[in-house]
Amino acid sequence: MSPVCDFYDLSPSGYFYFTKDGKVLELNSSAASLLEKNVKQ
């Protein structure tokens, strides 16, 4: 993983990436924790 990816994945803030339709495309570990889900690597 790149340092930028580590920064977002290990951030205490939840980051979500959405499609134009509003579906979650990607999320970091904090966001997954908020939703009680696992992040697929």
Structural account:
The protein is α+β, with helices and mostly antiparallel strands and 41 residues long. The protein has one domain. Helix content is 32%, strand content 17%. The protein is built from two helices and two strands; from the N terminus they run αββα. It has helices at residues 3-9, 29-34; strands spanning 16-18, 24-27. A two-stranded antiparallel ribbon has the order 1-2. The longest helix is centred in the N-terminal third of the chain and has 7 residues, at 3-9. The radius of gyration is 10 Å and the shape is globular.
Give a concise summary:
With 41 residues, the chain is α+β, with helices and mostly antiparallel strands. Helix content is 32%, strand content 17%.
How do the strands and helices of this protein lay out in sequence?
Elements: H1 3-9, E1 16-18, E2 24-27, H2 29-34
Antiparallel strand pairs: 1-2
